[in-house]
Write a structure and sequence with these properties.
The structure holds 2 protein chains of 2 kinds. Chain A is mainly beta. Chain A has strands at residues 16-20, 27-28, 31-38, 45-53, 59-66, 78-86, 93-96, 115-121, 128-129, 131-138. Chain A has a single domain, classed as Sandwich (Jelly Rolls). In chain A, 0% of the residues lie in helices and 45% in strands. In chain B, 8% of the residues lie in helices and 47% in strands. In chain B, the strands form 3 sheets. In chain B, strands 4, 5, 7, 8 and 10 form a 5-stranded antiparallel β-sheet that branches. A 4-stranded antiparallel β-sheet of chain B has the order 3-11-6-9. Classes of the chains: A mainly beta, B mainly beta.
Chain lengths: 139, 172
Amino acid sequence: MGKPSSGGGGSAIFTTNISGPTPGPLTCGTNDWIDLGVIPTGKYIRFGSAQYGSPDKSETFQIRTNIAGQSVGSDAATLLLASSVASAKTGLLNVDYYKSNTLNIKTVVGAGVEHFWLRLKSTSSTAGSYLYSINYVAV
Amino acid sequence: MTGFQVDSDGAEDKILKGATDGTQIGNVTDRLKVIDADTVAAINALSINLGIGAANIFKFNELALTARTETDLSGVTYTVPSGKTFAINSFSGSYDAQAALYVRLKKQTGGTGSFVTILRLNMMTGGQGNSTLSYDFGKGFAAGVAGDVFKVTVEASIAKGTIFAMFTGSEL
């Protein structure tokens, strides 16, 4: 039987990370959709934590999942799971989607077509830089 | 007419007729075999209450979780042998991930039908950190009779980490 996957603290849960903006847009406008990938068939994505940064303007970072059977990034084809606002004032925003197992923020169970998304919204059309780093696990 | 004493109510009192303080059955080196089920049960109950003898059943295993569905922990199934009873002394689990997980001790009465949960450990409630939980019953409690089957299952909220579980008991 194997050793614990991380030293001292037991097995890590959220072992997958996705970060950007690479290869997404380097600047955020008023409504950007970033495809985080296809939800694995028969599994769902459970979110652990994230960091968001938007030093040039106030930006809303939404975690969204496609509705079952849908695959495009749009309001009608997705559901909002969580929303956070980052700005120069907040600095780098740390978000806990797990809260010691008291939250269960997750996508739909994948059927091979559904994606999960990061959607960026802002009331300002001024271009601004941003970053995101999201930790999750496919369950 | 039997060899037992009968008093005024007419019922046999299961006392040897004519027995006195000096009545003797066999000699010192002779062996007497107890075959009465009630007597065996009474002796077992007495043994449990007195805590006679160490637990002689020790079932344990470790499992790296790969699924969330309830899974049998292999190698820990125990069937109470013919003519025996089973007392459980302890049941414990140890989990190394900060996620909710159930460890269940289940019993199948008589070796047929569904398994019923008789003990459950809820590991990592509230995500308090990696943890070990244990039920310790000291002298044990009578949990099964001949033919009953016991097993341990694991049900995880996230397929991460490794669970170790064990139970000990006394075969009487």
